[in-house]
Predict the structure.
Amino acid sequence: MKRIVITITLLATLLLAACGGAASPLPRESVVSGEAAPSTGFSAPAGLPAQVAPAADGAFYAPEAQDVASTVALADRLVIKNANLSITVDDTTASVDVISHLAESLGGYVVSLNTFQTTYGPDAKPAQQANLTIRVPSDKLNEVLSQIKGMAVEVKSETISGQDVTSEYTDLRSRLTNLEAAEKQLQSIMAEATKTEDVLAVYNQLVYTREQIEVIKGQMKYYEESAALSAINLDLIPNIATQPIEVGGWHPDGVAKQAIEDALRFLQNFTDGLIYFGIARLPFLLIVGLPALFVGRMFWRRTKKNAPKAATTGTD
């Protein structure tokens, strides 16, 4: 009994030492000052530093992720890279569709989407604006940013931030190893315990150890997923120059559109008439008209030849 109590006490001391050191705050590199942290699509587990915890409002649930742990080599640096991009576009809705399809085609997904009506100009004309957050593989971040900027009328601002979490991740891995070793020892002690109070004491310590193991695994998974998939926060602003013109409730763009449609309809009907004439009428006219033309020409020549003779006879 005394040996079990001493062993449990030593293990509890080791567990407290392993779990007591919370991960140090992450360094912030190239962080936009004065801006709130946008939603990134991952919920930070309990115990993670507040500096890396993303906002969760408005986030979609991501599709079932791959086992990113196998893709993160421990010998490499573990860096979380995110980007903020503000651009003007001609068509907000079409741009949202293109960007969403781009993210999904590369193995990413849409985290959040917010479209709303805004106003521009001195007359407060309405236009649609969108805030969009996507996640894409981190090795495709620059490629995706280039493609998005390629569809923009103007790039208002661009920021790329990086957070090196290698030391924090390594610390979590060491703590996990110690906790798993303590779990095995507690299981061995529990198998040898015979008294009820000993079993309960070991069981309670074992439950606590397993809880700490799950917490650390959650923190490690968060780091792995955040490093594997970069978040891009987009602000899509409508281009004023391409917005519909409106004068006192009159939309000249609608009149112009109607005029163009009427002109195209006239050209279409005219072309249809030519095609119909060439197929249905022209062959008949050729069959009937060519012989008639030939006969008429012969008659005209004969009449022309007989005219001088008649004139000569009249003179005599």
About this structure: Residues 255-304 form one domain.
